[in-house]
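Box S1 | Example of a co-folding query
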Amino acid sequence: MDQRFGMFIHWGPVTLRGTEIGWSRGHEVPVEDYDNLYKEFNPVLFDADAWVKTAKDAGMKYLTIISKHHDGFCLWPTKFSDYNIMNSPYKKDIVGELASSCKKYDIKFCVYFTVLDWHDPNYPIHSSSYPPSNDLDPKANMNKFVRTMENELQEIVTRYHPYMLWFDGNWESPWKNEYAVDIYKFLKRLDPNVIINNRLGASTEHSKLTSKTVGDFVTPEQKIGELDMNTPWETCMTICNQWAWKPNDTMKTLKQCVQTLAKTAGGNGSLLFNVGPMSDGRMEVRQVKRLKEMGEWLKIYGESIYGTKGGPFKPNELFAATRKGDKLYIHVFEKKSGTLTLPAIACIKVKQAYLLKGDKINYTQDAGGAVTLQFPEQLPDSNDSVIVLELNANAETIPVAS
Ligand code: JFZ
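Box S1 (continued) | Returned holo structure for JFZ
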């Protein structure tokens, strides 16, 4: 949770069409066509170091690559399915090369793995849809399917030593919670330190912890999680709209990107920010540039993000708060008026206030503990200017303001 910011990568032969990974199979792209794209997949410009360097320069601390998405194609050389990268013209271990580059650049390497697999004949559902199809193939064999899944996961864990496993595709009826409980135990036996997300147990609820959750943290998708000091959470969100590359997809502005990160940290969560590289192996120049701009912001303001806790105030459109030691960081998104009054922090005194890496800020604190900050004429950063409040007590133990 201290890392706060990671790169999600959705990629595969489907980028030759520019439609959504998995979901476009049998819709925008006919199944016959989709399932043969791997024969043309030859991303000769793929450079693992370049991708990892892009993550590093963005200020990201970890990276999660899909190893297999719902279309069943494996980006690593697996012994347990022929539908893998070694049978494409490219024939290089994408997952392995990224694992090595991450080691080189000190980025934590993590792996996404889908449960449901519409391509595997042993999995009973063969078509992409939500709500899921009710058409269950009687020739499918879930026991065999689960065995293959275990074998593939064993390869991934023992070969690439992922820091974290990010499961997905746990919402269809053939998947049972018993399978998930077994696989969770199996994985923790293989590597007691591996962290596992909450999309392994059979469920359609990803944002909240439930009594049946199998996994270590929750995963709100395409929305920022709510302030929560108890349950670890990681929001996954796309830099554009589609998970896999789409030509001319609308890209988020720098303001949206920076404020998303600040609101996530302000809610005590992490942000897994998704990039979809192109079919030739490169990431889009405009996306790399945008990520770099986030990195530039983090170079100045990183101390208010990494290793902080969120709260004690709920993030909103005007501001978010993070905290570490005796410091409270107020992320100011918008200057609606000349001042900002924060919810009261009872029994705690603000000793001084200043712009992070900048000048003093005038403020008052009333008898109830509410602080009013006086904004300068011009805030230094139009996306998020951070004001530091130094307290006479530990900021991390302040109860969350209701
Ligand atoms: C899932 C994947 O399907 C998606 O392609 C991407 O990998 C994302 C990170 O995770 O997203 C979902 C999950 C559930 C539904 C739709 C998309 N759903 O229940 O409709």
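DSSP finds seven helices and 15 strands in the chain. The CA atoms of residues 93 and 151 lie 17 Å apart.
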